[in-house]
From TrEMBL:
Keyword terms of this UniProt record: Fatty acid metabolism, Lipid metabolism, Lyase, Oxidoreductase, Peroxisome
InterPro entries reported in the protein's UniProt record: HotDog_dom_sf (IPR029069), KR_dom (IPR057326), MaoC-like_dom (IPR002539), MFE-2_N (IPR054357), NAD(P)-bd_dom_sf (IPR036291), Peroxisomal_Beta-Oxidation (IPR051687), Sc_DH/Rdtase_CS (IPR020904), SCP2_sterol-bd_dom (IPR003033)
Biological or metabolic pathway of the protein: Lipid metabolism; fatty acid beta-oxidation
Protein name as it appears in the record: Peroxisomal multifunctional enzyme type 2
GO function term, MF aspect, one: 3-hydroxyacyl-CoA dehydratase activity
Region annotated Disordered, chain positions: 303-322
Biological classification of the source: Eukaryota, Metazoa, Ecdysozoa, Arthropoda, Hexapoda
Organism: Cryptolaemus montrouzieri
Length: 723
């Protein structure tokens, strides 16, 4: 690398009569700069003045062939120092604010004079010199400024309250000068040196003092002042031939209230304190605008989570609010991506786009409140008698989820956790935990039951089983439907962002500790994939039709493997089994999904009752055969929505996704076609004035096979559908 030079640059160094300042002056002069060696010649306490210190350094520089001039002014008269540069060299390019004094006293003994003098020299002095140089820098569109701060300010140091405060003041000063100067190529950076100098010689032990040579810091400062250094507004710590950067970071922080309508109580603050002070997600904010921006995001969050009762939640008996799960559309979408939802399937856009008219959460999203409870409590850790369970031995064994009431795509749920029992399975202990979740009004909306298999924690003398929700053996017949999808190699990396940060799923060494050659996929990711595939196959991807699901994790899945879900329908229940295609291994067994009984009343009643509630009519047709019976069987789900205002419904839709052959069907009907029927026609059908079969199929198709009704379908439809 070619030598970094300062030819034709004029450098002003304050306090350059000794120590760091002297080293800076020498280094810059040796690299071609013309140097103003400023030193009042005072003692370390700011007393006295003589020209000797500056003169000596100037002579030393000249003796080595360099160019330098002495200046004896106080930094408080900074303009005079800059004038020395301009008078002698016609310009100034670099200003190093290095001059300083100490007036050490324990805090209680600091006099006004001690305080003022230290601030005068460090803070006001740097202000005065910099303000004098600034217009020159601006005019020439170039300038480099160094402020000298101190670890004494950053960490505090006994007896240096005045000095600490002034040094931190310089960091604030540098921050703003960096912003104001940046657009004119004026950089202002901070050096935080620990050097042997007049200021430190009798503060530090002799052996440490010996290594704190100013010459080892001077190159760091010189580089910061070189035209090739692009940094502006950075704080560099340096000593003994070492350098590092400081940054001010802030915790991720948390909202203290759920909506803008609420106030903040002291109890809210106490409850949230863990999250306020949690530095695990801390980062540097690059500007005041970014800091303000985070407040806007927080306010948006508050808008999204309703009003009122959560205040009570927060103030309730909970010591912390780790059992309050807050979520919004971003969480819902991130989860959906984590379980393989993809735009490749246009029907799944509704899980990925918050402005979609049917934007919805996958039902399995709602295992996340339970997961949060398990991860933030010590329930598992202490569940097995006589053992302490650690994350390295925990495998997800089984999961049950039941959506008791419709859940929105954003909100807050309060959960209550209880241990059902702990089974001693010999090879491990299986802990059964219930997590029930409620709205802020105390309404039960969700039940989760998890079985957590703690490997190696068996043999504690407990019973082999407890009473808990069981899976169902798969039928002994060929699956009716099978759907496959390959997981991504980064699937666990993506899924973990929904909250399960267990290193087993991402960290190869932690996987080894748990007995796996490679990180394995989260059980709940496989679970989410499977349920989504079943919903696609039997419920037209409608989350609202989901009622409950139970599954057992039989074997692990490796991210990147292909999941195949075999399905069998028994009335409202879809039994399923998930395997890994590449290894032909069952990974989820004993599994089923209950589809909901739809809130349905006979059509005639609904119409005459003024259509007061949201209602969905549903019937699932097993087989649709084309006339004259030559077509292959196809599946279809017919839904009809009546909105709250009772006006109507959009349409009848017929999903012919899996249709292959439509002999006799209208030409324009192809696989993936949606057939629609006008509202008026539907109403005529509901009133019994139009045969749905005729209206629907235009006389070209016949519906045969079983029609399963969530509840009893309106007699009129039954009659006309010729079941
Ligand atoms: C909301 C909640 C969030 C919780 C998040 C938890 C943290 C997550 O980060 C962790 C994960 O996601 S891990 C990934 C998913 N899980 C897995 O991959 C585990 C797969 N299963 C296995 O490997 C074995 O079944 C194994 C190892 C579990 C058991 O195998 P074996 O030791 O060989 O047991 P086996 O001889 O087959 O049977 C002994 C007794 O144990 C019962 N059993 C077996 N598998 C079970 C399982 N998965 N769950 C519950 N019980 C299970 C058997 O029935 C048998 O009992 P019994 O003899 O009384 O019938």
């Amino acid at each position: 690398m070619s030598e970094l030079r300062f030819d034709d640059r004029v450098v002003v160094v304050t306090g350059a009569g000794a120590g760091l300042g002297r080293a800076y002056a020498h280094l810059f002069a040796s690299r071609g700069a013309k140097v103003v060696v400023n030193d009042l010649g005072g003692g370390r306490h700011g007393d006295g003045s003589s020209s000797k210190a500056a003169d000596t350094v100037v002579e030393e520089i000249k003796a080595k062939g360099g160019v330098a001039v002495a200046d004896y002014n106080s930094v408080v008269e900074g303009e005079k120092i800059i004038k020395t540069a301009l008078d002698n060299f016609g310009r100034v390019d670099v200003l190093i604010n290095n001059a300083g004094i100490l007036r050490d006293k324990s805090f209680a003994r600091i006099s006004d004079q001690d305080w003022d003098l230290v601030h005068l020299v460090h803070l006001k002095g740097s202000f005065k010199t910099t303000q004098a140089a600034f217009p020159v820098f601006k005019k020439q569109n170039y300038g480099r400024i160094i402020m000298t701060a101190s670890n004494s300010g950053i960490y505090g140091n006994f007896g240096q309250a005045n000095y600490s405060a002034a040094k931190m003041g310089l960091i604030g000063l540098a921050n703003t000068i960096a912003i104001e100067g940046g657009r004119n190529n004026i950089h202002c950076n901070v050096i935080i040196p620990t050097a042997a100098s007049r200021l430190t010689e009798d503060i530090l032990p002799p052996d440490v003092f010996a290594e704190l040579k100013p010459e080892l810091i001077a190159p760091v400062v010189a580089y910061l002042c070189h035209e090739s250094c692009e940094d502006n507004g950075v704080y560099i710590d340096s000593a003994a031939g070492w350098a590092g950067k400081y940054e001010i970071v802030r915790s991720k922080g948390t909202t203290l209230r759920n909506s803008k309508k609420e106030g903040v109580s002291i109890e809210n603050v106490k409850n949230a304190w863990g999250r306020v002070t949690d530095m695990s997600g801390s980062h540097k904010l690059s500007s005041i605008e970014e800091a303000t921006g985070t407040l806007l995001t927080a306010l948006e969050e508050m808008e999204g989570t309703g009003s009122g009762g959560d205040q009570e939640e927060r103030g309730q008996s909970q010591e912390d609010d780790s059992d309050v799960y807050r979520y919004n559309s971003k969480d819902v979408i991130l989860y959906a991506l984590g379980v393989g939802t993809s735009l490749k399937n246009p029907d799944e856009l509704k899980y990925l786009y918050e402005n979609h008219e049917d934007f919805s959460a996958l039902p399995t999203f709602f295992v996340l409140p339970a997961m949060q409870c398990l991860f933030t409590s010590d329930i598992l850790e202490n569940a097995v008698p006589g053992r302490t369970i650690n994350l390295g031995q925990v495998l997800h064994g089984e999961q049950y989820i039941e959506v008791v009431d419709d859940l929105p795509t954003e909100g807050a749920l309060v959960s209550k956790t209880s241990v059902v029992g702990v089974m001693d399975k010999g090879s491990g202990a299986a802990v059964v935990v219930n997590v029930d979740s409620y709205t802020k009004d105390g309404k039960l909306v969700l039940r989760n039951q998890s079985v957590i298999f703690c490997v190696g924690a068996g043999g504690f003398g407990g019973s082999r089983t407890v009473d808990y929700i069981q899976g169902i053996k798969k039928p002994n017949r060929t699956p009716e439907k099978t759907v496959s999808q390959q997981t991504g190699v980064d699937q666990a990396a993506l899924y973990r962002l929904s909250g399960d940060l267990n290193p087993l799923h991402i960290d190869p060494s932690m996987a080894l500790v748990s007995g796996f050659n490679t990180p394995i996929l989260h059980g709940l990711a496989t679970f989410g994939y499977s349920v989504r595939m079943v919903l696609g196959a039997y419920a037209n991807n409608d989350s609202k039709l989901f009622k409950a699901c139970k599954a057992r994790f039989v074997k692990p899945v490796i991210p990147g493997q292909t999941l195949k879900v075999d399905m069998w329908r028994e009335n409202n229940k879809i039994l399923f089994e998930t395997s890994v295609v590449e290894t032909n291994t069952v990974v989820i067994g004993g599994a089923y999904i209950d589809l909901k009984s739809i809130n349905m009343q006979p059509t005639a009643n609904l119409l005459s009752s003024g259509l007061q509630s949201d209602a969905i009519f549903e019937f699932i047709i097993d087989q649709v055969k084309a006339d004259p019976g030559k077509a292959k069987a196809v599946g279809g789900v017919f839904l009809y929505n009546i909105t709250k205002d009772g006006k109507q419904a959009k349409q009848w839709t017929m999903d012919l996704k899996s249709a292959k052959v439509y002999e006799g069907a209208p030409k324009d009907i192809k696989p993936n076609t949606t057939l629609t029927i006008a509202d008026e026609d539907f109403l005529l059908m509901a009133q019994g004035k139009l045969n749905p079969q005729v209206a629907f199929m235009k006389g070209k198709l016949k519906i045969t096979g079983n029609i399963m009704l969530a509840q009893k379908l309106a007699p009129i439809l039954k009659a006309n559908a010729k079941l």
